[in-house]
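The freezer alarm interrupted the setup, so I double-checked each line after restarting. Inputs confirmed:
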Amino acid sequence: MHTTSAPPHADDAARSSVGGVTTTGLGKRFGELWALRDLNLAVPQGTVLGLLGHNGAGKTTAIRILTTLSQPTEGTGTVAGFDVVRDAAAVREHIGVASQQATVDGLMSAQLNLTTIGRLHGLSKSAATRRADDLLVQLDLTDFATALVRTYSGGMRRRLDLAASLMGTPEVLFLDEPTTGLDPLSRTHLWDMLSELVRGGTTVILTTQYLEEADRMADDIVVLDHGRTVAHGTPQDLKSRIGDDRLDVKVASADDVARAANVVAPFADRAPALDPERHVITVPIKPGVRVVQVVRALDDAGIDAIDVTRREVTLDDVFVTLTGAKPVDDADEAGRQGQERKS
Amino acid sequence: MSKSLLNDATVLARRNLEHIRQVPEKLTNVTVQPLMFVLLFAYVFGGAIKVKGGGYAEYLLGGILIQTLAFAMMGPAQTVATDFQQGVIDRFRSLPTRRSAYLLGHYLAEMLGAILTIVILIGTGFLVGWRSHADVLHLTEGILLLLVFASGIMWMGLWLGVLVRSPDAVMGIGFIIVFPLTFVSNAFVPIDSMPTVLQWMATVNPVSVLIAAVRELFGNPITPVTKHVWPIDHPVAAAWLYSIALVALGWWLAQRRYRARTTD
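Predicted 3D structure, all chains:
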Protein backbone atom coordinates (compact mmCIF):
# COMPACT_ATOMS: atom_id res chain seq x y z
CA MET A 1 0.00 0.00 0.00
CA HIS A 2 2.81 2.37 0.83
CA THR A 3 3.99 2.77 -2.70
CA THR A 4 3.84 6.54 -2.76
CA SER A 5 5.65 7.43 0.42
CA ALA A 6 5.19 10.91 1.80
CA PRO A 7 7.80 13.42 0.66
CA PRO A 8 10.41 14.44 3.23
CA HIS A 9 9.30 17.35 5.32
CA ALA A 10 11.33 20.24 6.57
CA ASP A 11 9.81 19.81 10.01
CA ASP A 12 10.81 16.16 10.32
CA ALA A 13 13.34 17.31 12.88
CA ALA A 14 10.41 18.00 15.21
CA ARG A 15 9.51 14.31 15.27
CA SER A 16 9.94 12.52 18.57
CA SER A 17 9.70 8.97 17.25
CA VAL A 18 8.49 7.64 13.94
CA GLY A 19 4.94 6.36 13.67
CA GLY A 20 2.36 5.44 16.23
CA VAL A 21 0.29 7.49 18.60
CA THR A 22 1.03 8.52 22.17
CA THR A 23 -0.97 10.54 24.64
CA THR A 24 -0.23 11.64 28.18
CA GLY A 25 -3.06 12.78 30.40
CA LEU A 26 -5.00 13.91 27.35
CA GLY A 27 -8.30 15.52 28.22
CA LYS A 28 -10.97 17.90 27.04
CA ARG A 29 -13.36 19.78 29.18
CA PHE A 30 -16.33 21.90 28.17
CA GLY A 31 -16.95 23.95 31.30
CA GLU A 32 -17.86 21.40 33.97
CA LEU A 33 -18.34 18.60 31.49
CA TRP A 34 -15.40 16.33 30.77
CA ALA A 35 -15.72 14.94 27.26
CA LEU A 36 -12.43 13.11 27.70
CA ARG A 37 -10.30 12.72 30.78
CA ASP A 38 -6.76 11.51 31.40
CA LEU A 39 -6.30 9.38 28.31
CA ASN A 40 -2.91 7.65 28.21
CA LEU A 41 -1.99 5.78 25.08
CA ALA A 42 1.12 4.22 23.61
CA VAL A 43 0.20 2.77 20.25
CA PRO A 44 3.21 1.32 18.40
CA GLN A 45 3.42 1.75 14.66
CA GLY A 46 1.66 -0.94 12.65
CA THR A 47 -0.81 -1.86 15.37
CA VAL A 48 -4.51 -1.28 15.89
CA LEU A 49 -6.03 0.43 18.89
CA GLY A 50 -9.74 0.03 19.48
CA LEU A 51 -11.57 2.73 21.39
CA LEU A 52 -14.66 1.04 22.74
CA GLY A 53 -17.58 2.84 24.29
CA HIS A 54 -21.15 4.03 24.03
CA ASN A 55 -22.22 7.30 22.45
CA GLY A 56 -20.89 10.12 24.58
CA ALA A 57 -18.05 8.04 26.00
CA GLY A 58 -15.41 10.33 24.53
CA LYS A 59 -14.35 8.27 21.52
CA THR A 60 -15.08 10.95 18.96
CA THR A 61 -13.53 13.63 21.16
CA ALA A 62 -10.31 11.59 21.34
CA ILE A 63 -10.29 11.18 17.56
CA ARG A 64 -10.99 14.88 16.98
CA ILE A 65 -8.09 15.90 19.21
CA LEU A 66 -5.68 13.45 17.62
CA THR A 67 -6.68 14.55 14.11
CA THR A 68 -6.11 18.24 15.06
CA LEU A 69 -9.80 19.14 14.63
CA SER A 70 -10.16 19.89 18.30
CA GLN A 71 -7.82 21.30 20.91
CA PRO A 72 -7.15 19.40 24.13
CA THR A 73 -7.66 21.30 27.35
CA GLU A 74 -5.25 19.02 29.26
CA GLY A 75 -2.30 16.79 28.45
CA THR A 76 -0.39 16.17 25.27
CA GLY A 77 -0.51 13.85 22.31
CA THR A 78 1.68 12.87 19.39
CA VAL A 79 0.68 11.32 16.10
CA ALA A 80 3.32 9.89 13.77
CA GLY A 81 5.84 11.54 16.06
CA PHE A 82 4.37 15.04 15.83
CA ASP A 83 2.70 16.99 18.59
CA VAL A 84 -1.01 17.38 17.82
CA VAL A 85 -1.08 21.00 18.99
CA ARG A 86 2.35 22.42 18.14
CA ASP A 87 2.87 20.52 14.86
CA ALA A 88 -0.75 20.23 13.77
CA ALA A 89 0.13 20.92 10.13
CA ALA A 90 2.72 18.11 10.13
CA VAL A 91 0.24 15.75 11.78
CA ARG A 92 -2.28 16.43 9.01
CA GLU A 93 0.26 15.41 6.39
CA HIS A 94 0.61 11.96 7.94
CA ILE A 95 -2.95 11.01 8.81
CA GLY A 96 -6.14 9.84 7.19
CA VAL A 97 -9.53 10.33 8.79
CA ALA A 98 -12.83 8.62 8.15
CA SER A 99 -15.40 10.19 10.44
CA GLN A 100 -18.78 8.98 11.62
CA GLN A 101 -20.49 11.36 9.26
CA ALA A 102 -19.47 10.31 5.76
CA THR A 103 -17.85 13.55 4.62
CA VAL A 104 -17.73 12.98 0.91
CA ASP A 105 -19.27 15.48 -1.46
CA GLY A 106 -22.64 14.35 -2.78
CA LEU A 107 -22.55 16.62 -5.82
CA MET A 108 -19.34 15.17 -7.22
CA SER A 109 -18.47 11.76 -8.60
CA ALA A 110 -16.52 9.32 -6.44
CA GLN A 111 -13.52 9.78 -8.69
CA LEU A 112 -13.59 13.56 -8.44
CA ASN A 113 -14.06 13.42 -4.68
CA LEU A 114 -10.90 11.37 -4.40
CA THR A 115 -8.79 13.35 -6.86
CA THR A 116 -9.78 16.60 -5.14
CA ILE A 117 -8.54 15.21 -1.84
CA GLY A 118 -5.42 13.85 -3.52
CA ARG A 119 -4.68 17.28 -4.99
CA LEU A 120 -5.09 18.83 -1.55
CA HIS A 121 -2.55 16.28 -0.31
CA GLY A 122 -0.16 17.75 -2.85
CA LEU A 123 -0.34 14.93 -5.41
CA SER A 124 -0.02 15.82 -9.07
CA LYS A 125 -3.13 15.44 -11.22
CA SER A 126 -1.94 12.16 -12.74
CA ALA A 127 -0.75 10.74 -9.41
CA ALA A 128 -4.06 11.66 -7.79
CA THR A 129 -5.99 9.98 -10.61
CA ARG A 130 -3.88 6.81 -10.36
CA ARG A 131 -4.26 6.62 -6.60
CA ALA A 132 -8.02 7.24 -6.85
CA ASP A 133 -8.42 4.46 -9.41
CA ASP A 134 -6.43 2.05 -7.22
CA LEU A 135 -8.57 2.78 -4.21
CA LEU A 136 -11.83 2.55 -6.16
CA VAL A 137 -10.79 -0.95 -7.21
CA GLN A 138 -9.80 -1.95 -3.70
CA LEU A 139 -13.06 -0.73 -2.24
CA ASP A 140 -15.11 -2.25 -5.02
CA LEU A 141 -16.51 1.03 -6.27
CA THR A 142 -15.22 1.01 -9.86
CA ASP A 143 -18.69 0.43 -11.32
CA PHE A 144 -19.89 3.64 -9.70
CA ALA A 145 -16.71 5.69 -10.07
CA THR A 146 -18.35 8.33 -12.24
CA ALA A 147 -21.76 8.31 -10.56
CA LEU A 148 -22.71 11.22 -8.31
CA VAL A 149 -22.07 10.33 -4.70
CA ARG A 150 -25.56 11.45 -3.67
CA THR A 151 -26.91 8.43 -5.54
CA TYR A 152 -24.77 6.15 -3.35
CA SER A 153 -26.16 3.89 -0.65
CA GLY A 154 -25.01 4.47 2.93
CA GLY A 155 -22.58 1.58 2.76
CA MET A 156 -21.06 2.82 -0.50
CA ARG A 157 -20.62 6.27 1.00
CA ARG A 158 -18.76 4.83 3.95
CA ARG A 159 -16.49 2.87 1.65
CA LEU A 160 -15.79 5.99 -0.37
CA ASP A 161 -15.14 7.89 2.85
CA LEU A 162 -12.57 5.27 3.74
CA ALA A 163 -11.00 5.58 0.30
CA ALA A 164 -10.85 9.34 0.84
CA SER A 165 -9.02 8.81 4.12
CA LEU A 166 -6.47 6.63 2.32
CA MET A 167 -5.74 9.06 -0.53
CA GLY A 168 -2.73 10.55 1.22
CA THR A 169 -1.26 7.12 2.05
CA PRO A 170 -1.44 7.89 5.77
CA GLU A 171 0.93 6.58 8.41
CA VAL A 172 -1.83 6.76 10.96
CA LEU A 173 -5.43 6.06 10.03
CA PHE A 174 -8.34 7.19 12.21
CA LEU A 175 -11.65 5.47 11.73
CA ASP A 176 -14.64 6.65 13.72
CA GLU A 177 -17.11 3.76 13.81
CA PRO A 178 -16.09 2.59 10.34
CA THR A 179 -18.52 -0.29 10.05
CA THR A 180 -21.67 1.33 11.42
CA GLY A 181 -24.29 0.95 8.72
CA LEU A 182 -22.31 -1.58 6.69
CA ASP A 183 -23.78 -4.94 5.79
CA PRO A 184 -21.95 -7.99 7.20
CA LEU A 185 -20.18 -8.73 3.91
CA SER A 186 -18.84 -5.19 3.49
CA ARG A 187 -17.81 -5.26 7.13
CA THR A 188 -15.73 -8.39 6.68
CA HIS A 189 -14.26 -6.95 3.50
CA LEU A 190 -13.29 -3.77 5.30
CA TRP A 191 -11.69 -5.69 8.15
CA ASP A 192 -9.61 -7.66 5.65
CA MET A 193 -8.52 -4.48 3.98
CA LEU A 194 -7.54 -2.90 7.26
CA SER A 195 -5.54 -5.97 8.24
CA GLU A 196 -3.59 -5.63 5.01
CA LEU A 197 -2.90 -1.95 5.67
CA VAL A 198 -1.68 -2.74 9.16
CA ARG A 199 0.62 -5.44 7.82
CA GLY A 200 2.05 -2.73 5.59
CA GLY A 201 2.93 -0.67 8.66
CA THR A 202 -0.10 1.62 8.99
CA THR A 203 -1.19 2.43 12.52
CA VAL A 204 -4.97 2.35 12.96
CA ILE A 205 -7.08 3.95 15.67
CA LEU A 206 -10.67 2.88 15.39
CA THR A 207 -13.69 3.55 17.52
CA THR A 208 -16.48 1.09 17.77
CA GLN A 209 -19.54 0.12 19.74
CA TYR A 210 -19.15 -3.50 18.66
CA LEU A 211 -17.19 -5.86 20.87
CA GLU A 212 -16.77 -8.24 17.99
CA GLU A 213 -15.05 -5.59 15.93
CA ALA A 214 -12.68 -4.55 18.71
CA ASP A 215 -11.92 -8.19 19.42
CA ARG A 216 -11.22 -9.02 15.83
CA MET A 217 -9.29 -5.94 14.77
CA ALA A 218 -7.57 -4.44 17.77
CA ASP A 219 -4.23 -5.35 19.30
CA ASP A 220 -5.10 -3.19 22.23
CA ILE A 221 -8.47 -1.97 23.51
CA VAL A 222 -9.34 1.07 25.58
CA VAL A 223 -12.81 1.06 27.08
CA LEU A 224 -14.15 4.56 27.64
CA ASP A 225 -17.07 5.59 29.80
CA HIS A 226 -18.07 9.22 30.29
CA GLY A 227 -14.66 10.32 29.05
CA ARG A 228 -12.72 8.10 31.42
CA THR A 229 -10.67 5.02 30.65
CA VAL A 230 -12.33 2.19 32.53
CA ALA A 231 -10.21 -0.61 31.08
CA HIS A 232 -7.15 -0.91 28.91
CA GLY A 233 -5.65 -4.14 27.63
CA THR A 234 -5.45 -6.71 24.91
CA PRO A 235 -8.68 -8.39 23.79
CA GLN A 236 -7.54 -11.48 25.74
CA ASP A 237 -7.05 -9.44 28.91
CA LEU A 238 -10.48 -7.94 28.62
CA LYS A 239 -12.09 -11.27 27.83
CA SER A 240 -10.58 -12.80 30.92
CA ARG A 241 -12.02 -9.93 32.97
CA ILE A 242 -15.40 -9.94 31.32
CA GLY A 243 -15.97 -13.65 30.92
CA ASP A 244 -17.84 -15.74 28.41
CA ASP A 245 -21.47 -15.90 27.44
CA ARG A 246 -24.31 -14.36 29.39
CA LEU A 247 -27.55 -15.98 30.49
CA ASP A 248 -30.54 -13.70 30.93
CA VAL A 249 -33.04 -15.15 33.39
CA LYS A 250 -36.40 -13.43 33.57
CA VAL A 251 -38.59 -14.29 36.53
CA ALA A 252 -42.28 -13.67 37.10
CA SER A 253 -42.13 -11.44 40.17
CA ALA A 254 -39.71 -8.95 41.65
CA ASP A 255 -39.59 -10.98 44.89
CA ASP A 256 -38.00 -13.86 43.01
CA VAL A 257 -35.07 -11.83 41.67
CA ALA A 258 -32.82 -12.12 44.70
CA ARG A 259 -33.74 -15.76 45.27
CA ALA A 260 -33.09 -16.67 41.66
CA ALA A 261 -29.72 -14.91 41.82
CA ASN A 262 -28.72 -17.25 44.65
CA VAL A 263 -29.87 -20.30 42.74
CA VAL A 264 -27.88 -19.41 39.60
CA ALA A 265 -24.78 -18.25 41.49
CA PRO A 266 -23.01 -21.65 41.31
CA PHE A 267 -23.16 -21.50 37.50
CA ALA A 268 -21.59 -18.06 37.33
CA ASP A 269 -17.91 -17.25 37.36
CA ARG A 270 -18.51 -13.67 38.52
CA ALA A 271 -21.35 -11.85 40.27
CA PRO A 272 -24.66 -11.81 38.39
CA ALA A 273 -26.18 -8.43 37.52
CA LEU A 274 -29.68 -7.81 38.82
CA ASP A 275 -32.30 -5.72 37.12
CA PRO A 276 -35.23 -5.69 39.61
CA GLU A 277 -37.40 -3.49 37.40
CA ARG A 278 -37.38 -5.89 34.49
CA HIS A 279 -37.09 -8.94 36.79
CA VAL A 280 -33.98 -10.03 34.92
CA ILE A 281 -30.82 -11.62 36.30
CA THR A 282 -27.85 -11.56 33.93
CA VAL A 283 -25.50 -14.41 34.70
CA PRO A 284 -21.93 -14.57 33.38
CA ILE A 285 -21.90 -18.33 33.05
CA LYS A 286 -18.89 -20.55 33.51
CA PRO A 287 -17.59 -22.30 30.42
CA GLY A 288 -19.31 -25.64 29.90
CA VAL A 289 -22.53 -24.79 31.70
CA ARG A 290 -25.64 -25.80 29.77
CA VAL A 291 -28.87 -23.84 29.81
CA VAL A 292 -30.90 -26.87 30.83
CA GLN A 293 -28.88 -27.21 34.07
CA VAL A 294 -29.82 -23.70 35.06
CA VAL A 295 -33.47 -24.18 34.14
CA ARG A 296 -33.59 -27.40 36.17
CA ALA A 297 -32.03 -25.72 39.21
CA LEU A 298 -34.53 -22.86 39.03
CA ASP A 299 -37.38 -25.32 38.69
CA ASP A 300 -36.15 -27.35 41.70
CA ALA A 301 -36.09 -24.17 43.76
CA GLY A 302 -39.68 -23.48 42.74
CA ILE A 303 -38.88 -20.27 40.89
CA ASP A 304 -41.11 -19.33 37.99
CA ALA A 305 -38.64 -18.50 35.22
CA ILE A 306 -40.49 -16.99 32.29
CA ASP A 307 -37.50 -16.87 30.00
CA VAL A 308 -33.93 -18.10 29.97
CA THR A 309 -31.76 -16.89 27.09
CA ARG A 310 -28.12 -17.54 26.37
CA ARG A 311 -26.29 -14.85 24.37
CA GLU A 312 -22.88 -13.41 23.60
CA VAL A 313 -21.34 -10.66 25.69
CA THR A 314 -22.42 -7.15 24.65
CA LEU A 315 -20.92 -3.76 25.30
CA ASP A 316 -23.47 -3.25 28.08
CA ASP A 317 -22.18 -6.36 29.86
CA VAL A 318 -18.65 -5.02 29.59
CA PHE A 319 -19.68 -1.87 31.39
CA VAL A 320 -21.74 -3.70 33.99
CA THR A 321 -18.79 -5.96 34.70
CA LEU A 322 -16.08 -3.32 34.60
CA THR A 323 -17.85 -0.45 36.32
CA GLY A 324 -20.47 -2.32 38.31
CA ALA A 325 -23.18 -0.04 37.01
CA LYS A 326 -25.32 0.11 33.96
CA PRO A 327 -24.13 3.10 31.95
CA VAL A 328 -26.51 5.89 31.07
CA ASP A 329 -26.76 5.86 27.30
CA ASP A 330 -26.25 9.49 26.42
CA ALA A 331 -28.20 10.70 23.46
CA ASP A 332 -25.21 12.24 21.74
CA GLU A 333 -21.46 12.57 21.93
CA ALA A 334 -20.66 15.03 24.66
CA GLY A 335 -17.89 16.49 22.54
CA ARG A 336 -20.22 17.26 19.70
CA GLN A 337 -22.69 18.95 21.99
CA GLY A 338 -19.93 21.11 23.34
CA GLN A 339 -18.92 22.05 19.85
CA GLU A 340 -22.48 22.96 18.87
CA ARG A 341 -22.88 25.11 21.94
CA LYS A 342 -19.84 27.08 20.94
CA SER A 343 -20.81 27.65 17.34
CA MET B 1 4.77 22.90 2.79
CA SER B 2 5.60 22.59 -0.88
CA LYS B 3 2.24 23.41 -2.37
CA SER B 4 0.85 26.89 -2.38
CA LEU B 5 -2.21 28.45 -0.88
CA LEU B 6 -3.38 29.26 -4.39
CA ASN B 7 -3.12 25.60 -5.42
CA ASP B 8 -5.37 24.56 -2.53
CA ALA B 9 -7.78 27.40 -3.20
CA THR B 10 -8.14 26.61 -6.91
CA VAL B 11 -8.67 22.90 -6.17
CA LEU B 12 -11.45 23.91 -3.79
CA ALA B 13 -12.86 26.46 -6.23
CA ARG B 14 -13.08 23.75 -8.87
CA ARG B 15 -15.29 21.83 -6.48
CA ASN B 16 -17.86 24.67 -6.58
CA LEU B 17 -17.73 24.78 -10.36
CA GLU B 18 -18.32 21.05 -10.43
CA HIS B 19 -21.41 21.54 -8.26
CA ILE B 20 -22.72 23.98 -10.85
CA ARG B 21 -22.00 21.54 -13.66
CA GLN B 22 -24.04 18.91 -11.81
CA VAL B 23 -26.82 21.24 -10.71
CA PRO B 24 -26.92 24.06 -13.28
CA GLU B 25 -30.05 25.54 -11.69
CA LYS B 26 -27.75 26.71 -8.86
CA LEU B 27 -26.76 29.42 -11.30
CA THR B 28 -30.24 30.87 -11.80
CA ASN B 29 -29.81 33.50 -9.10
CA VAL B 30 -26.81 34.97 -10.91
CA THR B 31 -28.13 34.50 -14.47
CA VAL B 32 -31.85 34.22 -15.07
CA GLN B 33 -32.89 36.23 -12.03
CA PRO B 34 -30.98 39.43 -12.92
CA LEU B 35 -32.07 39.10 -16.54
CA MET B 36 -35.66 38.88 -15.39
CA PHE B 37 -35.19 41.95 -13.18
CA VAL B 38 -33.86 44.01 -16.08
CA LEU B 39 -36.78 43.08 -18.30
CA LEU B 40 -39.41 43.58 -15.59
CA PHE B 41 -38.14 46.96 -14.45
CA ALA B 42 -37.39 48.22 -17.93
CA TYR B 43 -40.82 47.43 -19.29
CA VAL B 44 -43.12 47.51 -16.23
CA PHE B 45 -41.72 50.62 -14.50
CA GLY B 46 -39.94 52.12 -17.47
CA GLY B 47 -43.03 53.88 -18.76
CA ALA B 48 -44.05 55.32 -15.40
CA ILE B 49 -40.72 56.56 -14.10
CA LYS B 50 -39.33 59.62 -15.80
CA VAL B 51 -35.62 60.30 -15.55
CA LYS B 52 -34.08 63.58 -16.62
CA GLY B 53 -31.18 63.32 -19.01
CA GLY B 54 -31.81 59.92 -20.54
CA GLY B 55 -34.02 56.86 -20.98
CA TYR B 56 -35.03 54.65 -18.06
CA ALA B 57 -32.92 51.75 -19.38
CA GLU B 58 -29.80 53.87 -19.08
CA TYR B 59 -30.77 54.88 -15.57
CA LEU B 60 -31.77 51.36 -14.54
CA LEU B 61 -28.58 49.44 -15.35
CA GLY B 62 -26.39 50.91 -12.61
CA GLY B 63 -29.10 50.17 -10.05
CA ILE B 64 -29.69 46.63 -11.23
CA LEU B 65 -25.95 45.86 -11.30
CA ILE B 66 -25.39 46.91 -7.70
CA GLN B 67 -28.62 45.36 -6.49
CA THR B 68 -27.90 42.00 -8.13
CA LEU B 69 -24.34 41.90 -6.84
CA ALA B 70 -25.60 42.75 -3.35
CA PHE B 71 -28.08 39.87 -3.45
CA ALA B 72 -25.28 37.58 -4.66
CA MET B 73 -24.13 37.59 -1.03
CA MET B 74 -26.49 34.70 -0.39
CA GLY B 75 -24.65 32.36 -2.78
CA PRO B 76 -21.42 31.93 -0.79
CA ALA B 77 -23.37 32.12 2.46
CA GLN B 78 -25.49 29.16 1.50
CA THR B 79 -22.67 26.99 0.19
CA VAL B 80 -20.50 27.58 3.25
CA ALA B 81 -23.39 26.95 5.64
CA THR B 82 -24.14 23.71 3.79
CA ASP B 83 -20.51 22.58 4.01
CA PHE B 84 -20.56 23.14 7.75
CA GLN B 85 -23.84 21.31 8.15
CA GLN B 86 -22.68 18.29 6.18
CA GLY B 87 -19.34 17.95 7.93
CA VAL B 88 -17.42 18.36 4.67
CA ILE B 89 -15.47 21.07 6.44
CA ASP B 90 -13.92 18.55 8.85
CA ARG B 91 -12.62 16.55 5.94
CA PHE B 92 -10.82 19.57 4.50
CA ARG B 93 -9.57 20.59 7.91
CA SER B 94 -7.94 17.22 8.51
CA LEU B 95 -6.08 17.52 5.20
CA PRO B 96 -2.73 19.27 4.91
CA THR B 97 -4.28 22.43 3.48
CA ARG B 98 -3.75 26.02 4.53
CA ARG B 99 -6.48 27.14 6.83
CA SER B 100 -7.38 30.13 4.68
CA ALA B 101 -7.57 28.06 1.48
CA TYR B 102 -11.12 26.99 2.16
CA LEU B 103 -12.71 30.45 2.16
CA LEU B 104 -10.41 31.65 -0.59
CA GLY B 105 -11.53 28.77 -2.80
CA HIS B 106 -15.17 29.73 -2.33
CA TYR B 107 -14.30 33.35 -3.00
CA LEU B 108 -12.60 32.56 -6.31
CA ALA B 109 -15.53 30.45 -7.50
CA GLU B 110 -18.08 33.06 -6.47
CA MET B 111 -16.17 35.80 -8.28
CA LEU B 112 -16.45 33.83 -11.51
CA GLY B 113 -20.20 33.86 -10.90
CA ALA B 114 -20.10 37.63 -10.29
CA ILE B 115 -18.26 38.21 -13.57
CA LEU B 116 -20.90 36.14 -15.36
CA THR B 117 -23.63 38.23 -13.72
CA ILE B 118 -22.04 41.49 -14.83
CA VAL B 119 -21.70 40.24 -18.40
CA ILE B 120 -25.31 39.06 -18.53
CA LEU B 121 -26.65 42.29 -17.04
CA ILE B 122 -24.71 44.52 -19.38
CA GLY B 123 -25.73 42.34 -22.33
CA THR B 124 -29.40 42.40 -21.36
CA GLY B 125 -29.17 46.11 -20.65
CA PHE B 126 -27.85 46.60 -24.15
CA LEU B 127 -30.86 44.74 -25.55
CA VAL B 128 -33.38 46.97 -23.71
CA GLY B 129 -31.68 50.17 -24.80
CA TRP B 130 -28.87 50.87 -22.33
CA ARG B 131 -25.85 52.61 -23.86
CA SER B 132 -22.67 53.90 -22.30
CA HIS B 133 -21.66 57.46 -22.98
CA ALA B 134 -18.25 57.21 -21.33
CA ASP B 135 -14.78 56.66 -22.72
CA VAL B 136 -13.06 53.28 -22.37
CA LEU B 137 -11.06 54.43 -19.37
CA HIS B 138 -14.11 55.38 -17.32
CA LEU B 139 -16.02 52.33 -18.48
CA THR B 140 -13.13 50.14 -17.33
CA GLU B 141 -12.97 51.93 -14.01
CA GLY B 142 -16.70 51.31 -13.60
CA ILE B 143 -16.27 47.60 -14.21
CA LEU B 144 -13.30 47.45 -11.82
CA LEU B 145 -15.39 49.18 -9.19
CA LEU B 146 -18.13 46.58 -9.69
CA LEU B 147 -15.58 43.78 -9.22
CA VAL B 148 -14.16 45.27 -6.03
CA PHE B 149 -17.67 45.81 -4.68
CA ALA B 150 -18.52 42.21 -5.62
CA SER B 151 -15.42 41.04 -3.72
CA GLY B 152 -16.61 42.85 -0.63
CA ILE B 153 -20.07 41.34 -1.01
CA MET B 154 -18.63 37.83 -1.39
CA TRP B 155 -16.53 38.15 1.75
CA MET B 156 -19.57 39.42 3.64
CA GLY B 157 -21.49 36.43 2.26
CA LEU B 158 -18.75 34.05 3.36
CA TRP B 159 -18.90 35.61 6.80
CA LEU B 160 -22.67 35.14 6.90
CA GLY B 161 -22.20 31.50 5.85
CA VAL B 162 -19.81 30.80 8.73
CA LEU B 163 -22.06 32.73 11.11
CA VAL B 164 -25.40 30.96 10.62
CA ARG B 165 -26.17 27.56 12.07
CA SER B 166 -28.10 26.27 9.08
CA PRO B 167 -28.28 27.11 5.39
CA ASP B 168 -32.02 27.79 5.73
CA ALA B 169 -31.26 30.84 7.85
CA VAL B 170 -29.31 32.50 5.04
CA MET B 171 -32.30 33.50 2.91
CA GLY B 172 -34.12 35.20 5.75
CA ILE B 173 -31.14 37.11 7.09
CA GLY B 174 -29.92 38.00 3.62
CA PHE B 175 -33.26 39.46 2.63
CA ILE B 176 -33.62 41.49 5.80
CA ILE B 177 -30.23 43.12 5.15
CA VAL B 178 -30.13 43.47 1.40
CA PHE B 179 -33.73 44.20 0.49
CA PRO B 180 -34.19 47.53 2.32
CA LEU B 181 -30.65 48.63 1.50
CA THR B 182 -31.14 48.19 -2.21
CA PHE B 183 -34.72 49.47 -2.42
CA VAL B 184 -34.39 52.57 -0.22
CA SER B 185 -31.87 53.93 -2.67
CA ASN B 186 -31.62 55.54 -6.06
CA ALA B 187 -31.58 52.07 -7.69
CA PHE B 188 -34.96 52.21 -9.41
CA VAL B 189 -36.46 55.63 -8.77
CA PRO B 190 -34.88 59.08 -8.45
CA ILE B 191 -34.41 60.06 -4.81
CA ASP B 192 -36.25 63.38 -5.26
CA SER B 193 -39.51 61.47 -5.82
CA MET B 194 -39.43 60.07 -2.25
CA PRO B 195 -40.84 61.52 1.02
CA THR B 196 -38.27 63.60 2.95
CA VAL B 197 -37.37 60.96 5.54
CA LEU B 198 -36.73 58.37 2.85
CA GLN B 199 -34.77 60.95 0.87
CA TRP B 200 -32.37 61.24 3.79
CA MET B 201 -32.10 57.47 4.18
CA ALA B 202 -31.57 56.95 0.47
CA THR B 203 -28.99 59.73 0.33
CA VAL B 204 -26.75 58.39 3.08
CA ASN B 205 -27.27 54.79 1.94
CA PRO B 206 -23.91 53.57 0.57
CA VAL B 207 -25.82 51.61 -2.06
CA SER B 208 -27.02 54.92 -3.58
CA VAL B 209 -23.45 56.17 -3.65
CA LEU B 210 -22.22 53.04 -5.42
CA ILE B 211 -25.02 53.22 -7.96
CA ALA B 212 -24.38 56.92 -8.59
CA ALA B 213 -20.69 56.13 -9.12
CA VAL B 214 -21.45 53.39 -11.64
CA ARG B 215 -23.81 55.71 -13.50
CA GLU B 216 -21.23 58.46 -13.56
CA LEU B 217 -18.45 56.16 -14.77
CA PHE B 218 -20.72 54.60 -17.41
CA GLY B 219 -21.86 58.04 -18.57
CA ASN B 220 -25.48 57.39 -17.64
CA PRO B 221 -28.02 59.87 -16.26
CA ILE B 222 -27.66 60.86 -12.63
CA THR B 223 -30.75 62.24 -10.95
CA PRO B 224 -30.53 65.44 -8.88
CA VAL B 225 -29.30 65.16 -5.32
CA THR B 226 -31.63 66.83 -2.80
CA LYS B 227 -29.63 66.38 0.40
CA HIS B 228 -25.98 67.21 0.25
CA VAL B 229 -23.50 64.99 2.05
CA TRP B 230 -19.93 64.33 0.95
CA PRO B 231 -20.31 60.74 -0.35
CA ILE B 232 -23.25 61.36 -2.66
CA ASP B 233 -21.64 64.57 -3.93
CA HIS B 234 -18.42 62.66 -4.73
CA PRO B 235 -19.85 59.28 -5.68
CA VAL B 236 -16.83 57.79 -7.47
CA ALA B 237 -14.29 58.53 -4.73
CA ALA B 238 -16.76 57.53 -2.02
CA ALA B 239 -17.74 54.33 -3.85
CA TRP B 240 -14.09 53.24 -4.02
CA LEU B 241 -13.70 53.93 -0.31
CA TYR B 242 -16.88 52.04 0.56
CA SER B 243 -15.97 49.08 -1.66
CA ILE B 244 -12.44 48.75 -0.35
CA ALA B 245 -13.71 49.07 3.22
CA LEU B 246 -16.31 46.38 2.51
CA VAL B 247 -13.63 44.00 1.22
CA ALA B 248 -11.44 44.63 4.25
CA LEU B 249 -14.31 44.32 6.71
CA GLY B 250 -15.82 41.24 5.08
CA TRP B 251 -12.47 39.51 4.79
CA TRP B 252 -11.61 40.22 8.41
CA LEU B 253 -15.01 39.16 9.74
CA ALA B 254 -15.08 35.98 7.64
CA GLN B 255 -11.55 34.90 8.63
CA ARG B 256 -12.15 35.68 12.27
CA ARG B 257 -15.44 33.84 12.46
CA TYR B 258 -14.07 30.90 10.47
CA ARG B 259 -11.13 30.65 12.84
CA ALA B 260 -13.43 30.77 15.85
CA ARG B 261 -15.84 28.24 14.45
CA THR B 262 -13.13 25.78 13.49
CA THR B 263 -11.42 25.98 16.86
CA ASP B 264 -12.81 23.80 19.60
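Quick read of the result. The first helix of chain B runs from residue 5 to 22.
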